[in-house]
User: Which sequence fits this backbone?
């Protein structure tokens, strides 16, 4: 998802928002011939994410700015590590500084949080996946960060898969439509490559859904005991996803029930930006 075209489009919009008519402070206070060298430094440990995005903030501001990345996306680093070196015209470096930092701090925060969830379930076969609870316009960035942290992506958009949730099933119930028949009818009209997932919130909903031949069944806000019972009832006939009530204190026990997938909205909607800083040193050029 994170192509150069996507990166450039989003970063260019951010730069325009931040300096629509130029950077007045840099233009009036910083000599035109000043050169800057800056280190992207880690104030705390974490997982790096967003190197290409960070680089784009400077490249799109001024092609004369060079960014040398010292770590790769997905790499853990310690506090005090230098993650990248930026050098070039000082005005341009200072203009792009905040946008570059905003993105790399946000993405590295998501990657780091994801890495903590992944570590909690590493002894099981469960995957940690994200949700569509992303910042509008930044989904590709945030989901790239999830993968950097060792997690996986759920469907990217509403256009990628069929996912019938409680509100969809409630509409069917109001129309007195049987869930199994309604799902079978939908599946019969879909391309054979389209994945179908259905959310249930009670154990007695599992069999009618499985009878339709779905690929994944989501057990939403189930207790640990009911998750275990749900996994037993599904018995390998579909992939089992757990959702709801997932946090760093509960995810290990949820994974140990035998579910295949654990979806965690907090990966993207509640991740704290990682504390990274850009330490700038200015040098004046010649006459």
Assistant:
């Amino acid at each position: 998802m994170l192509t150069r075209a996507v990166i450039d489009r989003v970063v260019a919009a951010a730069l325009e928002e931040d300096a629509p008519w130029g950077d007045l402070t840099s233009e009036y206070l910083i000599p035109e011939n000043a050169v800057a060298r800056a280190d992207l430094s880690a104030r705390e440990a974490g997982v790096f994410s967003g190197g290409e995005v960070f680089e784009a903030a400077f490249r799109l501001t001024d092609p004369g700015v060079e960014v040398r990345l010292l770590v790769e996306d997905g790499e853990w680093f310690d506090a005090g590590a230098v993650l990248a070196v930026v050098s070039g015209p000082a005005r341009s470096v200072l203009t792009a500084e905040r946008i570059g930092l905003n993105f790399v701090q946000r993405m590295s925060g998501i990657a780091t949080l994801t890495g903590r969830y992944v570590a909690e379930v590493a002894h099981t076969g469960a995957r940690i996946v994200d949700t569509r609870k992303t910042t509008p316009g930044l989904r590709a960035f945030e989901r790239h960060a999830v993968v950097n942290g060792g997690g996986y992506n759920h469907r990217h958009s509403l256009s990628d898969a069929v996912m019938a949730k409680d509100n969809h099933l409630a509409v069917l119930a109001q129309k007195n439509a049987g869930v199994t028949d309604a799902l079978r009818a939908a599946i019969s009209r879909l391309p054979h490559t389209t994945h179908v997932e259905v959310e249930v919130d009670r154990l007695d909903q599992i069999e009618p859904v499985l009878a339709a031949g779905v690929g994944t069944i989501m057990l939403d806000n189930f207790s640990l005991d009911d998750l275990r019972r749900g996994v037993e009832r599904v018995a390998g006939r579909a992939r089992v996803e757990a959702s709801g009530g997932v946090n760093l204190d509960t995810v290990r026990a949820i994974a140990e029930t035998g579910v295949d997938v654990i979806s965690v909205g907090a990966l993207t909607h509640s991740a704290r930006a990682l504390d990274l800083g850009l330490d700038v040193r200015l040098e004046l050029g010649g006459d």
